[in-house]
Amino acid sequence: MAGQLTGVLSPLLQNRRVAAARSYLGQGLLLDFGCSAGALARFVEPARYVGVDTDRAALAQARALYPTHRFLSLDEFDASSADQFDIVAALAVIEHLPDPLTWLQSMRARLNPAGHLVLTTPDPALQWAHEAGARVGLFSREAAAEHQTLLDQRALRALADRAGFQLTRYQRFLLGANQLCVLEPTTR
Which terminal residue of the chain has fewer beta carbons within 10 Å of its beta carbon, N or C? Predict the structure, then answer.
């Protein structure tokens, strides 16, 4: 979903996002939405993992690195509506989506009632730093250019509520530049 890891610090940032999310990967079937080259796959058994991305080159790389894991294009995922997931992970994804509410609602429909969604996203208060770093090549220029909506804690909570989730865990990491959120479905 996000651009390739072309910034000098992009691999480090990806590793920090994965490290922040790892303790929330739990048990059960995991959907890694925006999986890129499969950074989360190494921490999840193949039978529990489904990775989805729009970047076909990244999917090819993921399939080569983790041949026993399941990786799907977005079209393949949309066509296969049978899977219900216990965990959805979306690391550095929501800020790239044109309609985060519709996406959250679609993820809620694919999530088991006792499941949870884990997402990371940049904090808009430090957008200036991200843009400056992208201009000089520290961060991915492509990913920065693809940002559509940056959400702070208040906006994330409101969006989650509208999509039928409650924000149960929130923390900032990477010196406050990134946010980790855990969302659980509400019973309505």
Answer: C
Q: By the 8 A CB rule, do 30 and 51 touch? A: no
Q: Which residues pair with 185 in a beta bridge?
A: 165
What does the pLDDT look like over 156-182, one tens digit per residue? 999 999 999 999 999 999 888 899 999
Question: Residue 89 is which amino acid?
Answer: A
User: Using H for helix, E for strand and C for coil, what is the string for 94-154?
Assistant: HHHCCCHHHHHHHHHHHEEEEEEEEEEEECHHHHHHHHHHHHCCCCCHHHHHHCCCCCCHH
Structure tokens at 17: 């996002």
**DSSP one-letter code for 67:** T
Fold for 10-185, please state it. Rossmann fold (3.40.50)
The predicted model scores a pTM of: 0.87
Q: Which is nearest to 30 in space by CA: 104, 81, 86?
A: 86
Q: Go through 37-64 and write b for each residue having 16 or more CB atoms within 10 A of its CB, e for each that does not.
A: bbbbbeebeeebbbbbbebeebbebbbe
Q: For the chain, what is the total number of helices (H) and then of strands (E)?
A: 7, 7
